[in-house]
Amino acid sequence: MSEEVAAATTVPATAAETSPDNPWPLQLLSQKLKMHIDRAPSAWVEGQVIELNRRGTNAYLTLRDIDAEISLPASAWTNVLDRQEIPLERGSRVVALLKAEFWLKTGRLNMSVKDIRPVGLGDLLARIERLRHALAAEGLFSDARKKRLPLLPHRIGLITGRNSDAKKDVLRNAALRWPAVEFEIREVAVQGNTAVAQVIAALRELDAHPEVDVIVIARGGGALEDLLPFSSEELVRAVSGASTPVVSAIGHEADRPILDDVADLRASTPTDAAKRIVPDVVEELARVRQARDQLRRGVTRLVEREADRLASLRSRPVLASPEVMVSIRHDDVERLKGRSQAAVTTAVVRAADQLVHLKAQVRALSPQKTLDRGYAVVQLADGRTAPGTRRDVVRHPDQAPSGTALTVRVAGGRFTAESTGGQEPAEE
Q1: How far is CA 119 from CA 46, 114, 126, 428, in A?
Q2: pLDDT beyond 80 at 427
Q3: Which parts of 77-120 fold into alpha helices (H)?
Q4: What's the CA gap between 99 and 114, in Å, rounded?
């Protein structure tokens, strides 16, 4: 007994402690795996039934992921399947409650189906609407995020099914409207579990293409289950994050996929998409002709209007006889010259008259006039000045005592004299 206890204590406690010299027994590894797997909780998963076999009380089925190439075998008691109102068939879309089980003796992992429920159209629509509302709350469908399509794209990226009618419709209608249009085509799966991954890969490739101006995702309609990839959250977010404008052309009016909401432009059909992404060359040529006609009429009207204005200007008298402008101004100048000369002459004559008058006044008041009348001016000959009188003018007899030399100024000139003494003036 003690030897068994000693041997047990030498077994490593964890897998990391094992070695070639001290391994675990296979039984211990199986037990630990079973303990670990038994602790894992059950999980509801969604998938598609691709295989279904009944063997007595057991049923074996294989579930495949909706959007990826991943499948998982599972088993269930037949009574779990019999609880369904509609029997399950291959291709049914279901949600199943799976619990991982590990068979200790055989070392086989088994996924046990504890419950299973088919997913009907109502459930799918409800799930799509919940996702639609959640993405709308994030603002992925906002008009502010929509990108404008180019007026005339040089190259169009087309994502569509392999050799599909949608591809032919887009190519044919686009070429009819604009023969020079070019396409960059990516043919992918547009339904099934690989559709989402292939469409996203093609979208990213075309979005990175430097010559692609707009991307069209086209499919020619189908059942709701076939259009589910175009309501995938992963695809919707990829379209929202694309830098190139994306056009959704899924030919399904009822229960439209979420791709229509996030795309920059929604077309009702692939044919409608071709009509909306390229202009009609016939219409554009008609617009060009119309614009040229409008320009021609506008230029003609402008030239005619300006010609009328020139004719009106030329008919005016000033332009009919341009010399009139000079002659009128010449007459004005001559008239002003005459007026100026008359004014100057009158001013000179008046000034001359005033000068003569002033000369007469000056002469009348001049001392010479007094002398001419017989008066004389007596001055002291030595130029002395009498106190309180003008210089050397004798005004009183006392200024010239007897023997004083005098100078007498008369009208004809001067002469000298000598005073003999003064006397008082006689009274009148």
Answers
A1: 9, 16, 11, 167
A2: no
A3: 78-82
A4: 7
For 20-46, write each residue's pLDDT tens digit. Answer: 889 999 989 889 898 998 898 999 998
Same domain (yes/no): 336, 395: no
Q: What is the DSSP letter of 144?
A: G
For residue 253, report the phi and psi dihedrals to the nearest 5 degrees.
-75, -45
How many Cβ atoms are within 10 Å of 184's Cβ, its own excluded? Answer: 16
Closest CA to 270 of 203, 218, 230, 223: 218
Task: Tell the residue number behind the tokens 């994306």, with chain if given.
Answer: 246
**Two tokens at 421?**
């003494």
The domain spanning residue 40 has which CATH number?
Answer: 2.40.50.140
Instruction: Please indicate, yes or no, whether residues 84 and 194 belong to a single structural domain of this protein.
Output: no
**Tens of pLDDT along 298-323?**
999 999 999 999 888 878 777 777 77
User: Same domain, yes or no, for 88 and 202?
Assistant: no
For 165-230, give the secondary structure using H, E and C.
HHHHHHHHHHHHHCCCCEEEEEEECCCCCCHHHHHHHHHHHHHCCCCCCEEEEEECCCCCCCCHHH
Side chain identity at 208, as an amino acid letter?
A
Q: Pairing state of beta strands 246-250 and 214-219?
A: parallel
DSSP 402: T
